[in-house]
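Handout, section B. The chain below has 151 residues.
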Amino acid sequence: MGPHHLDTTATLFHLATLSYDQGKYEQAETLIQRALAINEQAFVSTHPQMAQACYEFALLRHAQGHDDETRSLYERALAARTHTFGATHPQTIETRERLIALLRSMGNTQKAAQLERVQPRSKISGERRLAPAVEGDHKSLYKNAESSGIL
């Protein structure tokens, strides 16, 4: 496994989560961009892993206040999740709801209303971090990533 292997993307996302949690947003962004680039080379735009990469990057860009890029990433994730899972899948609904909330905050209530008509909204259960928390020794995760050329 090397720095461009598909399995590397999971490590990159975990490291991005750790970086994000530590307030290292630029490092988190770099890691997610690398994972997204690997996925873009390996998968079609509707693949679930592509959808997840876009979604994770959208969460980060939103936290950084980049609404236009966040919108584009949420739209990519929503299209992929709708294609792959259908309109009623929980991941599709969550992505749609986040896009609706973003559009409303940007003042684009017409587009938000169009998306709401596609599927009724459900409540998002709390704020979500970039990716599930990494269990175990974070120092060893960083050390392994550095020694394998990921960082």
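Note. The chain has one domain: 6-147. Compare this with the example in section A.
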